[in-house]
Amino acid sequence: MLIARLGAAAPRLALRHALPRFRPPGPACRPSSIPTHGAAPTPAAAAAARNSPGTAWRSMHQHRRQGGGGSGGQHYHPPPPPRPSPMVPTSRLVARAVVLGVAGANVAVYYWWWLARREGPHNSPWSTRWSRTTEKLDWMRENFVLSAENVLQGRWWTLLTSAFSHYDTVHLAVNMMVFHFSATMALELGFGAARLAFLSLGSALTASAASLLHDQTTAHQGPVSGALGASGMVEGIMAAVACTAPRRWVYLLLPPVPVPLGVMCFGFLGWDLYRLYRARTEGPTENWMGNFVGYAAHLGGAFFGVSYWFLRIRPAFKGVRFF
Predict the structure, then answer these.
(1) Rounded CA gap, 16 and 160, in Å?
(2) Of residues 281, 272, 277, 283, the one with CA closest to residue 223
(3) Residue 184 class from Cβ within 10 Å (0-12 exposed, 13-18 middle, 19+ buried)?
(4) Tens digits of per-residue pLDDT, 207-237?
(5) Which tens digit of pLDDT belongs to each residue from 89-115?
(6) Burial of 253 (0-12, 13-18, 19+ CB in 10 A)
(7) Averages of pLDDT over each 10 residues, the chain, 323 residues
(8) Which of 80, 105, 113, 176 is the most exposed place for a label (fewest CB within 10 A)?
């Protein structure tokens, strides 16, 4: 029985003695980069472990699993891309071209008015030169004066050309000075040349429509037969600029005191609204220059400027604060 048991275990004992026994290498043959159990790693081994690609990969994914290192985070969310700036940088050359282009068009139309009327008072009504002067003035009235007659006769372009037309020198100078101020500030705020052009044309057309609506619905027509001037377009640009930067300080002309831009602009609009109410109830009256002011055109241009700011400029400039 004992012999049988030894015989059964003999193959296993023979196999155990036949296989070489594994022994860990001694300190003499162990590489210096592999730390032993219970021994501190060498500085070279620690640096190699920190800089290895596997260590960087494991630390990055552990950071992502932990939600960026914050408490309670479970997923990694990369930061959103930076929001593009809504402000359109305009070079000084382009800004000058836009402002001087509009001002130059107004000056050119004023010069045509001057050429058309300069010979009239010096000619007799029955002379040939008087007839030519009358023809020039009639042509200017048909193409550069806003009136219901011109629009009904198919001269629809007067809705826009009348905004570039000035018959009086003081009227031209005041409008161009305010236009230069408003347009330059709009470009400085980042409106861009395209936005400024659209704002100018839209304000001019809306001002013309408001003027025609006022003339056709008022009970006191008075001697006003047509309208011209860039006041409505200027009011639209100024209203959009004032809504964008209402707390920017500007100087009045008379008196020269500093006021916030929003207070100045909407103060003028309040005055226009009051004068329009007086004109509709008591009839139009002349201003200090002997002209009739189109208060409805002023308010129409400002309405387009505020609407364009609310629908287009305000969403684009959301989060941008101007002072």
Answers:
(1) 108
(2) 283
(3) middle
(4) 999 999 988 887 555 555 688 999 999 999 9
(5) 667 788 788 888 999 999 999 999 998
(6) exposed
(7) 45 49 51 50 58 54 51 57 58 81 94 82 52 79 91 93 92 93 90 90 95 80 73 95 90 81 91 88 67 87 95 78 53
(8) 80
Burial classification of residue 37, based on how many CB atoms lie within 10 Å of its CB (0-12 exposed, 13-18 middle, 19 or more buried): exposed
Residue 259, H or E segment? strand 258-260
**Cα separations in angstroms, 146 against 74, 117, 159:** 68, 19, 6
Longest dimension (CA), the chain: 160
Q: Residue 218 burial by CB count (10 A; 0-12/13-18/19+): exposed, middle or buried?
A: middle
The helix (H) or strand (E) run that includes residue 260 is strand 258-260
CATH class of domain segment(s) 92-316: mainly alpha
Integer CA distances (angstroms), 79 to 68, 76, 243, in order: 11, 10, 32
In this structure, are residues 176 and 103 in contact, taking their beta carbons and an 8 Å threshold? Answer: yes
Cis, peptide link before residue 255, omega less than 30° from 0: yes
Domain boundaries in the chain?
92-316
Token representation of residue 193: 């040349």
CA angle 189, 192, 195 (to 5 degrees): 110
**Which residues, in sequence order, are CB contacts of 170 under 8 Å at separation 6+?**
289
Output the CA torsion 276→278→282→287 (10° steps): -80
DSSP collapsed to 3 states, 118-185: CCHHHCCCCCHHHHHHHHHHHHHHHHHCECHHHHHCCCCCHHHHHHHCCCCHHHHHHHHHHHHHHHHH
